[in-house]
TrEMBL record, chains A, B:
Keywords: Lyase, Pyridoxal phosphate. The gene is PHYKPL. Its cofactor is pyridoxal 5'-phosphate. Belongs to the class-III pyridoxal-phosphate-dependent aminotransferase family. This is 5-phosphohydroxy-L-lysine phospho-lyase. Pfam families: Aminotran_3. It comes from Laticauda laticaudata.
Length: 441, 441
């Protein structure tokens, strides 16, 4: 669109001039200019190829030709709001319903995961007529005012905690309250939620929801112990609230074994509301809330219309449908499982060699490498993590960190990421870890 | 995308099954199925052509070939987040800055007008360190939790008014507190805002913002008296708050004389924050907040990142840039002025003939026809308005109503709407008004 291509410095100068500085760049000291991408690879203005290990939005691969084609074909025909009947909307809802437990059969379409979580909160509060929400420590549910309120990751740095928001401990069995040596961490962490509920009840507070990322992400790529969701769901239901599973980071087959990450907890677990975003449209702004008939009916009983101008338009739905088609046709869920397991194996070999690696955890292509200064104390190796991602970028591998200590290397690549890519990353990682060890000695 | 085309009833049945019933259809008794659209026309599954008088989102015309092409070309290349440098983002911000007063030179990109208004509210509250907001009666600023709080159109039917939200009278000189016979309605309405501020100050409350649609839309297509914005801006500034102009419905040349509707108030008026949505991407989910360096810096001084996953991606920006190109190349702003004036003239001829028409108001292609049961009392002719839009639909003209009495016919068509379209609508309207008059006698 530009009259003539700019060099990196010129683009950066204009960005500093015109874009709010709260919008951060990756590698702010030496940002990357990306001009095209394909599959799991991105290319800068000099033609350098980067391996993308983190973009879970480009779910079926950057610029997947079938997604691009579906968008174009629908853009040529019609892009309007959902106040007219259109088959794409109903086809898409029906297709999504087939991926979910039968109970989750009512859909709302929106433009972003944040919009989805905001609506989920409204649905829960309307249905229960309660206000209070339990969230998990370090959670991030979105950038909107209502979501900053329920995101400890954000509100700790801003206005602080609202009286209707309660923070439960992160069910992290590596660095949390109850660890791998505990005989029943799922129950122990669930009991913490129960304690919060009991305390709040003594203060006459009432619960609308427990809001949980199916796999806590910015909290450090955490995998809650199996059975935890069933137990906390029971507690929140007893308190009259609902269970909201935030699948925005991790849904759509990423975890390999299942289509939805909440299903890792077992077939007997069914959330009351599921929110979807990021990967759903492979980069196109789409999002979705799935819920039960009862909750949807309580919401419409207010008589107040819910209208989302762009939400559920025929283009977004065509794209969403095509993403589902591709996941199926290219068997990306099975691929995520296979490549993820291979990747975990390679990483575990590294763990045996490098004392900096404290923990390797993951399911499918959602993997965290927890770096520690000390294997015993498990103190976060934040600086080392920062060094590694900076060095990896010089090696044309894009990776980033998560966790409160920013010491967890997070892998959530496009699902077309393959075993060769995994080998390349692990080789580079090995090399850089050796560099670090030489420096230290 | 569907395996075989469905008839209207089949699509409707699936919609009832899978889509939350809070999401309303136009003409719920007999909804329309639209399968394609071009310019100002939409087509149903039987090939019937409808004239679209209301879709301000399809700003440069449904499926404008250049917008479709820009989306496709960029989709083929790259669609990723704004954490990498990209020229489309900075080009787009720079281009938008040229349409605005110099002071409004910092931009944030998002996915919906609602996201934009939510951020505007955060910016104002962060900058001023105050909480309270003044909004205009019957205003609608979006579907998010934070915006329902500041939208009397919504909160009156839900949780009610928060203590930090103050509602000022709608500056409606036809049906409001101060009318066309008042010697200075701008000052009179502005004094009402001043009164609210003074009263709240006595209660030790502090103001973050006055939030105003540049032309109140769901309130009934209202044109605030000239000079009103300057006066209320002075009051809110004195109180330490900022002026937020919501241009989501009416920006981008619709008003003809100016590119932004707030500019109708005079060149000496400059808002502190401007929010944009709907027409900005011709249907693609894009939105924008423009503000001053000072406000942006106060926001980033918190140290908290603002990250919007899809906001400002290269595809959205390519589309936004192309929309600006088309407005310029096709001279749509001048066209809106010319066609709007012609349309207003035709409508005023009808007013002389039909006592049901109480008021005709408009600028460019933002026009309201206020229907009254009684010219003296100005009581809303709600049922008649409903009858008219239902009959117009049978005549293949899509129109809808607005205003608290749902008695204002609202025209906000794609900007390619032409004089022939205006003639057609007015002829149909004349015919239907005569039908109504015959029924009444």
């Amino acid at each position: 669109m530009s009259s003539e291509p700019r060099n990196r410095q010129q683009t950066l100068a204009l960005r500093k001039q015109f874009i709010g500085s709260s919008c951060k760049l990756f590698f702010p000291e030496d940002p990357v200019k990306i001009i095209r991408a394909k599959g799991q690879y991105m290319y800068d203005e000099n033609g350098n190829q980067y391996l993308d290990c983190i973009n879970n939005v480009a779910h079926v691969g950057h610029c997947h030709p079938e997604v691009v084609k579906a968008a174009h074909q629908q853009n040529l025909l019609l892009n309007t709001n959902s106040r007219y009947l259109h088959d794409n909307l109903v086809d898409y809802a029906q297709r999504l319903s087939k991926t979910l437990p039968e109970k989750l059969c009512t859909f709302y379409f929106l433009n972003s995961g944040s919009e989805a979580n905001d609506l989920a909160l409204r649905l829960a509060q309307q249905y229960t007529k309660h206000k209070d929400v339990i969230v998990i420590d370090h959670a991030y549910h979105g950038h909107l005012t209502s979501l900053i309120d329920i995101s400890p990751y954000k509100f700790r740095n801003l206005d602080g905690q609202k009286e209707w928001v309660h923070v439960a401990p992160l069910p992290d069995t590596y660095r949390g309250l109850y660890r791998e040596n505990h005989k029943d961490p799922a129950t122990a962490y669930a009991d913490e939620v129960k304690k919060i509920i009991d305390k709040a009840h003594r203060e006459s507070r009432k619960f609308a929801a427990l809001f949980v990322e199916s796999l806590p992400s910015v909290a450090g790529q955490i995998i809650p112990p199996s059975g935890y969701f069933q137990k906390v769901a029971e507690h929140i239901h007893t308190a009259g609230g609902v269970f909201i599973a935030d699948e925005i980071q991790v849904g759509f087959g990423r975890v390999g074994k299942h289509f939805w990450a909440f299903q890792l907890q077992g077939e007997d677990f069914i959330p009351d509301i599921v929110t979807m975003g990021k990967p759903i449209g492979n980069g196109h702004p789409v999002a979705c809330v799935a819920t039960t008939k009862d909750i949807a009916e309580a919401f419409s009983a207010t008589g107040v219309e819910y209208f989302n101008t762009f939400g559920g338009n025929p283009v977004s739905c065509a794209i969403g449908l095509t993403v589902l088609d591709i996941i199926e046709k290219e068997q990306l869920q099975a691929h995520a499982l296979r490549v993820g397991n291979f990747f975990l194996e390679l990483l575990n070999q590294q763990k045996a060699k490098h004392p900096l690696i404290g923990d390797i955890r993951g399911v499918g292509l959602f993997i965290g490498v927890d770096l520690v200064q000390d294997q015993e104390k498990r103190s976060p190796a934040s600086k080392e993590a920062e060094f590694i991602i900076t060095r990896l970028k010089e090696e044309f591998v894009i990776l980033s960190t998560d966790g409160p200590g920013r010491n967890v290397l997070k892998f959530k690549p496009p699902l077309c990421f393959n075993t060769k890519d995994a080998e390349l990353v692990v080789d580079k990682l090995d090399m850089i870890l050796r560099e670090l060890e030489i420096r230290k000695t």
